[in-house]
Specification:
The chain is mainly beta. The chain is about 5% helix and about 40% strand.
């Protein structure tokens, strides 16, 4: 009799414990940017599988956005024709429905050994009708000091160290951008051809701590 009573209590207890509701799953978008001048073309992997029908990304290029699911994810680069098991660099994390990401293939600072890295940036899906929105990334692994981003007339937008990314700035179409750093011999002035209602990322590398090279990556 006691055994039946215990069994009844166990069944009752189990029926009262609610199982956690599964987390909702939806789409996220991710693109891959090859920001390493000396690299070969890079294949792109999501959760260990090469993106189907994708074309390897050359230095200075960005892939189209690929759609995958939210939740736990791993994104990686590998030299074209190899496998994710020998990936050069990658990032992993948990991502929410609607996230829009860019993964940048680069190197650590030379002063830190110059090993390969992948830098994660959250792209902004919200546009402003009469402005262009611009974000900046410092990826010159030769430059171990702050990089400054200004408008042509000298308004300071942002200053940051290596591997960091800025927020988005709403700028008038046609605004030119000046970029400098303490060791740079000549500030860089670029015209990114900004258009109203579009978002951009300007990432900056360079062959040395004295020379900067800027790349404009429009968002789809």
């Amino acid at each position: 009799m006691k055994k039946l009573l215990y069994l009844g209590l166990i069944v009752l207890f189990a029926s009262c414990v609610k199982q956690p509701a599964p987390e909702p799953v939806g789409e996220i978008k991710v693109r891959f940017v090859n920001a390493l001048e000396t690299s070969v073309a890079q294949d792109m992997f999501i959760r260990g599988a090469k993106i189907p029908n994708s074309v390897a990304v050359l230095y200075g290029q960005a892939s189209p956005y690929a759609v995958t699911t939210s939740g736990d994810n791993a994104f990686a680069f590998a030299n074209m024709g190899t496998t994710e098991g020998v990936a050069n660099a990658g990032v992993a994390g948990k991502f929410e429905i609607g996230d829009k990401l860019s993964i940048y293939y680069s190197k650590k600072l030379l002063s830190q050994g110059g090993g390969l890295i992948a830098a994660l940036k959250y792209d902004d899906p919200v546009t402003v009708p009469d402005k262009a929105k611009v974000s900046f990334i410092h990826l010159n692994h030769n430059l171990n000091n702050v990089m400054n981003f200004l408008t042509e007339d000298g308004e300071v937008l942002h200053s940051m160290g290596f591997g960091l990314t800025s927020k988005y700035f709403a700028l008038a179409p046609g605004t030119k951008i000046k970029i400098n750093a303490a060791t740079v011999t000549e500030p860089l002035l670029i015209d990114p051809l900004l258009e109203a209602g579009k978002n951009y990322t300007i990432w900056v590398d360079g062959p040395s701590e004295t020379v900067l090279v800027a790349h404009v990556a429009p968002q789809d």
